[in-house]
Write a structure and sequence with these properties.
Oligomer: single chain
Order of helices and strands: HEEEHEEHEHEHEHEHEHEHEHH
Number of helices: 11
Largest sheet: 8 strands, parallel
Number of domains: 1
Strand content: 5-15%
Bound molecules: zinc ion
CATH architecture: Alpha-Beta Barrel
Shape: globular
CATH topology: TIM Barrel
Strand order of the largest sheet: 3-6-7-8-9-10-11-12
CATH class: Alpha Beta
Distance between the termini: 49 Å
Helix content: 25-40%
């Protein structure tokens, strides 16, 4: 446990530390230093565009913002994922009993159970979460009205996203659309819906021509709308190439979070460091589970290299993964905060750094000056 990672912990009260770490009541943290500095500087007019309102980033200073989770999915999502050509030959997941309906099914009808989900969001609030980004794109079953109802009923702020997933899951018309067409469609989505980000924008193990087109298009849609972009990589593959494409159309790297980099097994974190050096965010976004033990030393390496301000943490929680919800005995949607973060703390990461990652980096990534008027 290196001394420098523990020496500043005393600057936080126990209540603040417990709240941040998800172990106490959802008492708001008072604004405080980030990495030894003050509240982050945001551009004039910057907001976080949630499904219910445009809010100043300071509205979320008091807790954790999770930048990549899933609160809505289409009822056919699991079946479509399982049917992807790249999954051919993989064993089908065993059928499971839905705890609400009693049906044996891969689908979970609780996805549409508002009361259940509101209770989960209330529990996440108590854990210290103040805002959740839903990374489900329209083709994956994004449901803005349902997100609005969840947010209204629970008081949890929710950010909705636009975009496309990976080539295998694209709507068929993408293949025949031009880059201009895709760009226009993404801008149109952000103009007609209260979107706060583009994501999760995915590429396959090797980037396909369609994915390259869509990535260029979302980069151009960012320039037109101001919305930040978070990505899906295939276990970290093509991470730098994703950033290359986005930068090639003019996207500033600090508006991009490259995703699933905790799944890139690389003890020396060279790719992670390269992404950080270029100024983009590195997403450790499947946390609170099996990969935690492998990821803790990777995060420590990046902290030691001075990249604390480039890290983002989330869980990529799936609304349809019903055993993971707290009411079903799981850790819930706050698991990156309640399961993974304590492991970082135990490894010696100080409270100021944790606060910087959870409460500041996520807002620095999300906050933008929207170039399109708010609708809805
Ligand atoms: Zn995701």
């Amino acid at each position: 446990m290196p001394e420098e990672r523990t020496s500043r912990a005393a600057r936080f009260t126990r209540r603040e530390a417990l709240s941040l770490l998800g172990a106490g009541a959802a008492t708001a943290l008072s604004p405080g230093p980030i990495f030894g500095a003050q509240e982050p500087q945001f551009p004039a007019g910057a907001v976080i565009r949630t499904v219910l309102d445009d809010l100043p980033p300071s509205a979320f200073a008091g807790g954790t913002t999770l930048f990549h989770e899933h609160l809505t999915h289409g009822s056919d999502w699991n079946a479509r994922m399982a049917a992807r050509p790249s999954r051919a030959g993989s064993p089908a997941p065993p059928p499971r009993r839905d705890p609400i309906t009693g049906c044996v099914s891969d689908l979970w009808e609780g996805c549409a159970n508002l009361d259940f989900l509101v209770e989960e969001l209330n529990r996440a609030k108590r854990d210290g979460v103040v805002c959740i980004v839903d990374g489900t794109h329209p083709d994956g079953g994004r449901d803005i009205n349902f997100l609005m109802q969840m947010s209204r009923r629970s008081g949890m702020s929710i950010v909705a996203s636009g975009g496309y997933y990976v080539d295998e899951m694209y709507p068929p018309e993408i293949a025949t659309m031009s880059e201009d067409d895709v760009t226009e469609e993404l801008i149109q989505d952000a103009t007609t819906n209260p979107l706060g980000a583009f994501g999760e924008m995915g590429t396959s193990a090797e980037i396909t021509p369609n994915e390259r087109k869509v990535f260029r298009a979302v980069g151009r849609a960012h320039l037109a709308t101001g919305l930040p972009i978070f990505t899906h990589t295939e276990n970290g593959k093509c991470a730098e190439e994703q950033l290359d494409i986005l930068e090639s159309v003019g996207v500033p790297p600090e508006r991009v979070a490259i995703g699933h980099l905790g799944s890139l097994v690389a003890p020396e974190v060279e790719v992670h460091k390269a992404i950080c050096r270029r100024g983009a965010f590195v997403g450790f976004d499947r946390q609170g589970g099996r990969s935690d033990d492998r990821n803790v030393p990777m995060v420590l390496k990046l902290l030691d290299a001075g990249y604390a301000d480039r890290l983002l943490i989330s869980a990529d929680f799936g609304v349809n993964a019903w055993p993971n919800w707290q009411q079903n005995g799981g850790p819930g949607i706050s698991r990156a905060l309640t399961v993974f973060v304590p492991k970082l703390r135990q490894a010696g990461v100080d409270e100021e750094t944790l606060r910087g990652i959870l409460a500041h980096n996520s807002r620095r990534f999300l906050a933008c000056v929207p170039q399109v008027p708010r609708r809805g």
